[in-house]
Amino acid sequence: MAVFHDEVEIEDFQYEKDSERYSYPCPCGGNFCITWEDLTNGEDVVKCPSCSLIIKVIYDKDQLTCGETVPAPSTSKKLVKR
């Protein structure tokens, strides 16, 4: 069983559009990296390639359908009291 250095939410990762992967800085100076494909395949453990640290990625599997991101709610709508 792996001992995780940390559990990190996918929202805290930086998405790198050119390489189509998510990255998160490691304390050693390296980066933890995971792809959308890895996540859709149920992979949620990432090892830093520069050291021995391992993290667990926390994400909502339901939001990974079709590779789409969930849009933010519109701020232009007004609430109407009845």
Automatic annotation (TrEMBL):
GO MF annotation terms: metal ion binding
Pfam family, one: Zn_ribbon_CSL
Keywords: Iron, Metal-binding
Entries under Gene3D superfamilies matching the protein: DPH Zinc finger (3.10.660.10)
Annotated pathway: Protein modification; peptidyl-diphthamide biosynthesis
Catalytic activity: 2 [3Fe-4S](0)-[protein] + 2 Fe(2+)-[Dph3] + NADH = 2 [4Fe-4S](1+)-[protein] + 2 [Dph3] + NAD(+) + H(+); [3Fe-4S](1+)-[protein] + Fe(2+)-[Dph3] = [3Fe-4S](0)-[protein] + Fe(3+)-[Dph3]
Family: Belongs to the DPH3 family.
Entry annotated with the keyword Cell membrane: no
Residue ranges constituting the DPH-type MB domain according to the UniProt record: 4-60
Assembly and binders: Component of the 2-(3-amino-3-carboxypropyl)histidine synthase complex composed of DPH1, DPH2, DPH3 and a NADH-dependent reductase. Interacts with SERGEF.
SUPFAM superfamilies assigned: CSL zinc finger (SSF144217)
Upper taxonomic lineage: Eukaryota, Metazoa, Chordata, Craniata, Vertebrata
Gene Ontology biological process terms in this record: protein histidyl modification to diphthamide
Name of protein: Diphthamide biosynthesis protein 3
Coiled coil: none
Keyword hit for Iron: yes
UniProt cross-references to InterPro entries, sorted A to Z: DPH3/4-like (IPR044248), DPH_MB_dom (IPR007872), DPH_MB_sf (IPR036671)
